[in-house]
Amino acid sequence: MTINPDQRMYPPSRKDFISLTLSDSHSQTYNNGKHRRQSCWRDKQTMQAEQQTRTVARTCCPGWKLVLFLFKEKWKQLSRLQRSLILFLLALLLILGLLSYSSITEHWRGLSDQEDWLELNDRELKAIPPGLKPVLGQAAGKAPAPVAGPHLRSAVVPEAAGEARGPNIPILVKPPIKKKIFANKRGPPSLHKDGNVSDTVGREKQEQVVQEEEGEEEEKQKKIVSWRGAMIEADQATEPPPSANEKEAAAPPAPANPADTVPLEASPETRERLEAVCDAFRHAWKGYKDYAWGHDELKPISKSFGEWFGLGLTLIDALDTMWIMGLKEEFAEAKTWVEKDLSFNKNVDVNLFETTIRILGGLLSTYHLTGDQLFLEKAKDLGSRLMPAFKTPSKIPFSDVNIGKGTAHPPRWTSDSTLAEVTSIQLEFRELSRLTQDPQYQEAVNEVMTLVHKLPGKHDGLVPMFINTNNGQFTHKGVFTLGARADSYYEYLLKQWIQGGKTEDNLLEDYLQAIEGVKKHLVRQTGPSKLTFVGELSHNRFNPKMDHLVCFLPGTLALGAHNGLPGDHMDLAVQLMETCHQMYKQMETGLSPEIAHFSLQASDGSDVIVKPADRHNLLRPETVESLFYMYRFTKDTKYRDWGWDMLQSFNKYTKVSGGGYTSINNVRDPLSPGPRDKMESFFLGETLKYFYLLFSDDMELLSLDKYVFNTEAHPLPIWPSPPK
Ligand code: DMJ
Fold this sequence. Notes:
Layout: H1 14-23, H2 34-58, H3 63-77, H4 80-99, H5 101-125, H6 133-142, E1 156-157, E2 161-163, E3 177-178, E4 207-209, H7 216-222, E5 231-232, H8 244-249, H9 268-291, E6 297-299, E7 304-306, H10 313-325, H11 328-341, E8 349-351, H12 352-370, H13 373-386, E9 400-402, E10 407-409, E11 416-418, H14 419-422, H15 426-436, H16 440-454, E12 466-468, E13 474-475, E14 479-480, H17 487-499, H18 505-522, E15 523-525, E16 532-534, E17 536-538, E18 541-543, E19 545-547, H19 553-562, H20 567-585, E20 595-598, E21 608-609, H21 622-634, H22 638-654, H23 681-695, E22 707-709, E23 715-717
Parallel strand pairs: 2-4
Antiparallel strand pairs: 1-3, 4-5, 6-7, 8-9, 9-10, 11-12, 12-13, 14-17, 15-16, 17-18, 19-20, 20-21, 22-23
Helix pairs in contact: 2-3, 6-15, 9-23, 10-11, 10-12, 10-23, 12-13, 12-15, 13-15, 15-16, 17-18, 17-19, 19-20, 19-21, 20-21, 21-22, 21-23
Residues 488, 549, 620-621, 682, 686, 711-712 line the site of 1-deoxymannojirimycin.
């Protein structure tokens, strides 16, 4: 029996071994059992190996190859017992290594963060990559007519002076970089106010403060603190006085027309409706102020609060709504809280998506509306603390970030992220790059879109609901919905395209293809009244189920049609708007359930069926959001009337005496709707804002040709076209 010479270099297969033993003439040497047989085999292998070694050495193999080769040969010479012992020891070492993982990674992170920081600064000093030039160039002063104000001046971006508390904590000193900050006031004059130039203008010196102590033991172990754990604070003293030109530019803006809550010239009907929305807001705010001030959410029934991230979620989500409604006192007290009490230097895990759309989006839009540097500084601080989410093998971000520690992770049970979540943070991060002239935010989120654009597994443009952060592939394939977990992917395809001046073809292509996919696979009509709805596809089976969340779609389709996309998108928008309206109208409380099922048979009595588990209403905004778009583009007053009916229903069934509004359990039971004791932040951030905009006659109030609303109703400017 011969041995294939090629196989000698590798651990023998069982087959080789048997072949060899049967053909050996010294059969007695095999009688002592397995061990003996192995020895014999090894002896022969050893000889062969020595021969190989000599050959390898002769052929001048690189040193490392020789070492590898010798290691392999030595390994082969060991008995099974010896090998097992070594493997056991290695496993033990691995376990010990894993146990000490956290402290090792803390150390490692500390080092890599320093590198990141250097990289960041390096990037700031380098030329902006070509792909970003037009956009960032606009940010550098070519943006749409910033209204001059005292805030418009050159600013020095801080030296980060690290101040370590305690021994052995290295101070990361950020080299000084001078950078111009353009504090723009944008939007209609009615949104500009005197006196809103922040008294924090010029607070530009960043200061690094070590993360709060989490306990002495932990502190001792850490030794090195991530810079992401540091709070960056402004220092008023560093800004140079404005130059003569700047002084000229800093003349006060046109007299503030302090955004009257209800414009005097409005018709009685409009006045009544706008006043009703503002009353609703004040009532909601009263509850929040009395029982939940500075906390995430009001629990209006128990007159307490709920905490999600511990970042004053409702307050921040509501900032721009107050500004738009002209609620000056409320805005001023909220601003003071942001200035004095809002800190992102917290050891807290936040959801990347929710924090981006609600907090980052809210801060950026408030900055745009007010021109107040305070909100941009806060947005920058938060944005940089969210960046660790993108440190994954695939560049698809993790769902959760600890904004104090600078660590990120997926949910406990999976390494997947939700598709809508990773593709609905782009408007905000892109805008942050434009404002800061730091491309890192835009690059990170654009990378996600590029990956998803190329990814196989879509179904005529429809995307699965999950994506893996390790390999960047879709998971849980076969289920397609425009509801939870996928909704805002479609919304942000269109809105990014609009934000970027309609130049990014991949976004448009994906959006158009997706809408074709929706029409082909998901759009159906009910049997009884021919209501058009968007169902779901689950492994090729159509499910006539539609989340209330899907009611964003008529507005998005209408926005696309307004921007030159096919007319049949508008036709579909009109039909879907009717259905979303019916989801309210056909309920006994006049409020939509969270999920509706639709009858496909003509013989069925009603079009809308509500299952017991789906009867709740969370004060969601999607229908009034779409009504706002539909009214803006068609001026058909029926959309306002539908909205007015909805507002009455919210007041009747969800308003809580003493302050606040509550989610309810059962939209089918007007006698006992069952308060759930929670007022979601989006009720103030979105629902009431869209009511106000729907009823307002001022079409320039956040014109849809100048602003694009993020998925939490925070308006961000559409970027101007690059100069030709
Ligand atoms: C909001 O946070 C956003 O509108 C998001 O896109 C979907 N969920 C809520 C409102 O329903």
